[in-house]
Design a protein that fits this description.
metal-binding; single chain; NAD(+) diphosphatase; EC 3.6.1.22; Nucleoside Triphosphate Pyrophosphohydrolase; 2 domains; alpha+beta; NADH pyrophosphatase activity
Length: 287
Amino acid sequence: MDFAFERARHDRAGNLRGSDELWRTPDTRVLVLGGEHVATIDGPALRWVPVDEAPDGEWILLGDQNGTRHAAVAVQRVPRELNPVSVRVLAPLLDPDELSLAIHAVGLARWLQSHTYCSRCGEYLYSAQAGHLRVCPSCGTEHYPRTDPAVIMLVTDADDRALLARNPNWPEGRFSTLAGFVEPGETLEDAVRREVAEEVGVQVERASYLGSQPWPFPQSLMLGFNAVAETTELVLDPKEIAEARWFNREELLAAVESEQVVLPPPKVSISRWLVEQWYGGELPGAW
């Protein structure tokens, strides 16, 4: 696979999370981040600071990589002098080892910063397990990081044409694959069938899983599928889809080269990877 976040490249060292003394040592490297923005240096590369130079914030144990321990401190806003950059921007540029650590840190930081009160009794929560757990001091409820599963699918028809669509909030020409969140009590395959039918009115029967991608913007896990259409007539839900089109390979290449169609960026989104798996190679252009 060739897209960002597709494989973890560090040991999360979960056995060390119970005690700060086990992992917050002088040689631990610390990443400062706020939301999806991380401290960087020229290169581009992540900026790692010693433990004694880290600002106050929510501490997160990331784990071990290449014999070195890594942690993160989540703050409200990364100081300007640390050159904060969004991980979305950095993703295609970072070394895969650093990207693995960054995506772990961002996913947890966004959850910690948005999950501050107990949903059961309203009490302020405190962190435990090195940032991987919130605990209520009043009712004792344990709150674990939330991940929302979402299916993302490239639909093809009997003529091996690919279906791409544009969200109403996107500019003219920006196309991608269909996607949607999995509902309670639903299999992933059922979610594929339902989302395709709801968004574009196409009936799908076969859906084959291809791969997954964590997407912490804010807290999704994208589950990639190929889906085979039983029908081809398009009936769009205007709240979700502004435009949808069937493309054969020659039509898509011509549309991309003429910039009539702009695809998601390469090496970042699983959506682009799904399209290029069908196409049989790399396509020019990106958002």
